[in-house]
Amino acid sequence: MTPESAVPAEPRVQHAVAKLEVGRAMQGCPTLQAAAQGILSTLCKFLDWDVGELWIVDRQAGVARWAGLSQVGDLDLGEFERFSSVMSIRPNLGIPGQVWASGGVCISDLPNHASFKRGSLLRDVGLRTVVGFPLQYGSATLGMVLLFSRQPREAHGEYVGILTDIGRQIGKYYGSELSVQRSDSFFSLLVERSPDVVFVLDLDGTVRYVNQVAQQYGGAERRQRIGSSAFDLIHPDDRATVFDALRAAVGKPGTVLSLRGRGRHIDGSWGRYHVRFTAVSDGSSAPFILGTVRPIEDDGRANGSAAPSSVVVAKFRLTRDELLTLELITQGLSNKRICEILCVSQDTIKSRVSAIIRKLGATNRAGAVWLAAKHGLI
């Protein structure tokens, strides 16, 4: 092996500059396709090639498709572009397929034979040599770059190393795109298989997403729920409490709130559910509500006029504000944090907490939480 001190300075400098410029070309381009022109023009300029083209692998179809070209001169490549743009190849087919199959650098003279249509088109405009290298991410090949030159070129060991390293650089950068696609599929599967209802609402209550298990609990098919109003499913006696909680959540995105209430089945009966939700916002659009729903107990669906939760609330004479405060207390939040969520003063919260403790017959916050759980208030 050649020691590092014996490697010519020029290839090392060329390598470093090319990697830097390729990195700049990829910035701001979310996909390999979007970065194609920038990558190819950079490689042609800094590695001294006349034309560059990119092939991107479609893993599901098992083929690679032509993704565009760039050149540093003014060669007439119109017919070559038209011919290439409709092509798809498999491993070992043509020079791109050979690079894909071998996973290594391939350099050769362009074939001069009628059966090699693309090679003939390039030779007609004066190009003579081609080098191809893969864009690899781990064991996966994301695509192949082919570079063409008017001059004869040789692939000595150092130059092969440069191309291999740049191919890995590009593959690593866009390999995360492949990982994200796999992650998206995995997490979509988790949400759909969740034992709880998972939902997304607009702030006006419009259902934007609900997973399949919602049909099990509510009776209606998912397509019937999406686009409808979630508020229509809430028992009239529980709506005011839910609206207060939603306002609190929107005021403090990221805060998780928990409520118990009744939801309407498609047959008109009512079931008791535990709902957890939060407001989500990325700062660039209006917040939305993300949450889960779980049945409280398997005691059949309660009738609409005398749900157990209503009876218990009436027994202890808890106000709507006190119920909401009690839910936040059970989550272990401090008075200061509850004040921030509900946008009220600390004196107001202290007064509510004292009233809750008194009405439940407890002696402190912990006792109030224990009695609330015992009597089905939370």
Description:
The chain has 3 domains: 4-188, GAF domain (Beta-Lactamase); 194-304, 2-Layer Sandwich (Beta-Lactamase); 317-378, Arc Repressor Mutant, subunit A, CATH 1.10.10. Strand 10 and strand 11 (288-295) form a beta hairpin. By secondary structure, the chain is an alpha+beta fold. The chain starts with 8 loop residues before the first helix and ends with a helix. Helices cover 45% and strands 21% of the residues. It has 14 helices and 11 strands. Helix 11 (320-330) crosses helix 13 (346-360). It has a 6-stranded antiparallel beta sheet. A 5-stranded antiparallel beta sheet has the order 8-7-11-10-9.
Overall shape: it is elongated
- The CATH superfamily of the largest domain bears the name GAF domain
User: What kind of oligomer do you see?
Assistant: single chain
Terminal Cα span = 72 Å
- The computed structural class is alpha+beta
Please indicate the percent range of residues in DSSP E strands (runs of 2 or more): 15-25%
Number of domains: 3
Order of strands in the sheet with the most strands?
3-2-1-6-5-4
Question: How much helix, percentage-wise, in residues?
Answer: 40-55%
CATH architecture of the largest domain: 2-Layer Sandwich
CATH class of the largest domain: Alpha Beta
Largest β sheet strand count, sense and barrel closure: 6 strands, antiparallel
Rg on CA atoms, Å = 32 Å
Number of strands: 11
Which H/E pattern describes the elements? Answer: HHEEHEHEHEEHEEHHHEEEHHHHH
Number of helices: 14
